[in-house]
UniProtKB/TrEMBL annotation:
GO terms for biological process: galactose metabolic process. Residues 5-264 form the NAD-dependent epimerase/dehydratase domain. It catalyses: UDP-alpha-D-glucose = UDP-alpha-D-galactose. Its EC number is 5.1.3.2. InterPro entries: Epimerase_deHydtase (IPR001509), NAD(P)-bd_dom_sf (IPR036291), UDP_G4E (IPR005886). The keyword Transit peptide does not apply. This is UDP-glucose 4-epimerase. The lineage of its organism: Bacteria, Pseudomonadati, Bacteroidota, Bacteroidia, Marinilabiliales. It comes from Draconibacterium halophilum.
Length: 342
């Protein structure tokens, strides 16, 4: 019988792509999402891609009673992938309590239920934000974490600690933290993708909305960094490649291939690209000219980061495969679909 995986935040950007990849690999998926930053229609689009609509329940995992009641009805869950979280860096500075409550309490509620209902396995959605500006590049999983720049970033760091401390205390638990670099792009069908509410904070959604005419111009935050062309450098990873890594992590846990009870993997491409390289790549991939202007640096931004992917490549047996231009084109195709542009 197909194993059942709980995907929290499964109607969100990375969650929805992961649901599709899990279904394509033969898993049964149940999604829990409070729909605070996503739409129920995503489930229909997942079905159009995979041929299967995932089971779905709408509630907030920070509600301990509802979470417990959910597990009492779903004790056949084999593993959890925990995406559900608030993720806007700027908002987290304004509303720290909201961020700590949403992001920390939901993980603690899940862990309580894992212990009570014997669900051994969890994959946690972490971020390269835990490294801050590393002293040495590229960053390996052993690179020391730095103090977070925002409450959002701190919730990733503290949640990693909650997970590792819990796994240490309760040997029946096993977990993998996946530290994502910068996920971009959309499913090649253009049926699912990133749909930010309001003005996008992240680079690629801002680029595609500018190209679509929703924004007048892209602001490039800084061209005086110590990088190839002065603009800041990140490791941009295709969201479908990223989703596939979750399937590998789940299999690793379910098949007992993990070497330690708590493991960490960097998920990136291993290549750093500057903001201007992304802008040029977008123009080349799509043939659309972007209106952009260089402005001051954005507060809290780091200069450059990219992943050392050796451990993920060798130990997980996973590698990012898609090229940047293909990925940027997929983001544009998704934006066009959403806006009804031919
Ligand atoms: C941000 C968060 C990070 C989080 C990630 C989630 C910060 C400091 N970090 O990463 O914690 O995990 O999002 O996706 O906010 N840029 C522009 N113009 C724009 C938007 C962005 O030039 O309109 C530049 C930024 O300055 C940066 C790069 O593009 O150099 C990428 O920015 P973004 O997509 O926001 O990601 P991060 O800042 O790397």
């Amino acid at each position: 019988m197909a194993k059942k995986i709980l995907v929290t935040g499964g109607t969100g950007y990375i969650g929805s792509h992961t649901v599709v990849e899990l279904q394509n690999s033969g898993y049964d998926v149940i999604v829990v999402d409070d729909l605070s930053n996503s739409s129920i229609d995503v489930l229909d689009n997942i079905e159009k891609i995979s041929g299967k609509k995932p089971a779905f329940e709408q509630f907030d995992l920070a509600d301990a009673t509802k979470t417990d009641e959910f597990f009492s009805r779903n004790s056949d869950i084999s593993a959890i992938i925990h995406f559900a979280a608030s993720k806007a860096v700027g908002e987290s500075v304004q509303k720290p309590l909201l961020y700590y409550r949403n992001n920390l309490v939901s993980l603690m509620n899940l862990l309580d239920c894992q212990l009570k209902y014997n669900v051994a396995n969890i994959v946690f959605s972490s971020s390269c934000t835990v490294y801050g500006q590393p002293d040495v590049l590229p960053v390996t999983e052993e690179t020391p974490r730095k103090d977070a720049e925002s409450p959002y970033g701190n919730t990733k760091r503290v949640n990693e600690d909650i997970l590792s401390d819990s796994i240490l205390a309760f040997p029946q638990l096993k977990g993998i933290a996946l530290r994502y670099f910068n996920p971009i792009g959309a499913h090649p069908t253009a049926l699912i993708g990133e749909l930010p509410l309001g003005v996008p904070q992240n680079l690629v959604p801002f680029i595609t909305q500018t190209a679509a005419g929703l924004r007048d111009e892209l602001k490039v935050f800084g061209d005086d960094y110590d990088t190839v062309d002065g603009s800041a450098v990140r490791d941009y990873i295709n969201v479908v490649d990223l989703a596939k890594a979750h399937v590998v992590a789940i299999e690793r846990l379910l098949e007992g291939k993990n070497k330690k009870s708590y493991e960490i993997f960097n998920l990136g491409t291993g290549n750093g690209l500057s903001v201007l390289e992304i802008v040029n790549g977008f123009e080349k991939a799509t043939g659309v000219k972007l209106n952009y202007k260089v402005v001051d640096r954005r507060a809290g931004d780091i200069e450059k980061i990219w992943a050392d992917t050796t451990f993920a490549n060798e130990e997980l047996g996973w590698k990012a495969e898609k090229g940047t231009e293909e990925t940027l084109l997929s983001a544009w195709n998704w934006e066009k679909k959403v806006r009804g542009i031919k």
